[in-house]
Design a protein that fits this description.
4 domains, 5-stranded parallel β-sheet, Rossmann fold, single chain, Helicase, Ruva Protein, domain 3
């Protein structure tokens, strides 16, 4: 039954594609079984079915409906070539891998431009990515090289571009890591399918290669990729690359390959600044429908300044702990989570730093703050600075007083009490304190 079904499929396929394509991509396929409206086919290797699905998916869908019915589907099996010399004519070869569902462009559908939060650290890269997605291959940004440290959004951005392009009619997109490409190359050599591998890649409309730094030391792999790169570039196909370093800093790569990487647009993804981190957190919180106080959100944004991945990790952990314990997300829980995820959470906030922030806010000099002047605006500024010095530092009251012109500890106590009283009775003053608190945190 399975052989008959596949023969019916082949007869339709043959009339809709060129004879060379039919011989290359469909003749080698072997029907294995048919059960529950699922036709199981044996294909020679991984990139073989990837090629078929990238280029003939629409045609196959129509044929499957016609031959097997609207509930029909295909399941692919990868043939085991280990015992090929003994079983060359045996169609019931051993199966090494099953693929009931294949993501043929390897793109994560959750990576979208909408969820890639822009900021000073990445705005150029995002703008270039959008421009590319509108006119892939025929733009000034080909190839696009995106580089930056771990967790800064390189994969998110390049896959967002791929997902946008994949929506275009007759546009084939393929995302692959350099490691997977190298493994495909090795497999193709073992199976004598290098020509098929190259043909697969040079016919892609948009090729996205992640972590190209791992091509380091793989001379033969680099040679094949160089050939593929040139063919795609010659045919105005879009090439997108990502690495942890800029092209000039990549080691162990051929100069001619690095030269190709630099021939288009190179953009860096930097560490997100405070505002961008805040925007990212607020977006994630909104998407997850989490309730977190603004004070806690600002605290996370201030403390977790390494990368986006750690920001997300903190949120996930907070949500998990809150769900399990049935407790609200508190500042104490937040501090505990951050201390376990982020290596360096201790920021140096000293009295001098606080004096600088407060003096700028009230537009008076630090010298005036330390002096014995009794003008109201100077007194208030001095008291506010003392208040935050007690709140943010571990200095004793005597030490704080010393930093403000040699005043004694009773003066510091009075200052702290005066600020607390004004916070309770004066909403305008309270908002000023909140703003100064924010400035001290964000720097």
């Amino acid at each position: 039954m399975h052989e008959k079904h596949w023969e019916n499929c082949l007869s339709i396929i043959k009339n809709n594609i060129t004879s060379q394509s039919f011989i290359t991509w469909f003749k080698p396929i072997i029907p294995k079984s048919y059960k529950d409206k699922t036709l199981t086919l044996i294909v020679p290797n991984k990139f073989f079915y990837e090629w078929i699905e990238n280029h003939y998916l629409e045609l196959l869908n129509k044929i499957i409906i016609k031959v097997l019915g609207k509930d029909g589907k295909i399941e692919y099996l990868i043939s085991d070539k280990k015992n090929n010399s003994k079983n060359r004519n045996n169609k019931s070869q051993e199966i090494s891998e099953t693929k009931s569902k294949v993501f043929f462009n390897n793109l994560n559908k959750n990576y979208r431009f909408k969820s890639f939060i822009p900021g000073k650290c990445n705005s150029v890269a995002k703008a270039a990515g959008k421009r590319i997605s509108e006119n892939p291959g025929r733009n000034p940004f080909n190839p696009l090289m995106v580089y930056g440290g771990v967790g800064l959004g390189k994969t998110h951005l390049i896959q967002s571009i791929g997902n946008k392009i994949s929506k275009k009619i007759n546009s084939s997109v393929y995302y692959v890591t350099s490691e997977k490409f190298a493994n495909q190359f090795i497999d193709s050599l073992k199976e004598n399918k290098l020509k098929d591998l190259i043909n697969f890649y040079i016919n892609i409309d948009c090729l996205i290669i992640d972590d190209v730094q791992f091509f380091k030391g793989k001379e033969k792999t680099q040679e094949v990729f160089f050939h593929i790169f040139n063919q795609l570039n010659l045919n105005n196909k879009q090439i997108i690359l990502a690495a942890d370093k800029s092209p000039v800093e990549l080691e162990g790569l051929e100069k001619r390959l690095v030269s190709r990487f630099k021939s288009g647009l190179t953009v860096e993804l930097e560490k997100p600044d405070y505002k961008t981190r805040l925007d990212i957190l607020e977006y994630k919180i909104k998407m997850e429908n989490i309730k977190i106080d603004s004070e806690i959100i600002e605290y996370i944004a201030f403390q977790v300044d390494t990368n986006v991945r750690e920001l997300e990790g903190v949120l996930v952990s907070l949500l998990a702990h809150s769900t399990i314990t049935k407790e609200d997300i508190s500042i104490e829980l937040t501090k505990s989570i951050i201390s376990k995820i982020v290596k360096d959470t201790n920021r140096e906030i000293d009295i001098k730093y606080i004096q600088e922030i407060v003096s700028k806010y009230f537009q008076i000099s630090i010298e005036d703050m330390k002096d014995k002047a009794r003008r109201k605006e100077i007194v208030i500024a001095r008291q506010v600075a003392m208040y935050f010095s007690k709140d943010f530092t571990n200095n004793s009251l005597k030490s704080i007083g010393y930093h403000f012109g040699g005043r004694d500890h009773s003066t510091v106590i009075h200052a702290v009490q005066s600020v607390n009283d004004m916070i309770d009775t004066d909403n305008f003053f309270k908002k000023n304190i909140e703003e100064i608190n924010r400035r001290i945190l964000i720097g």
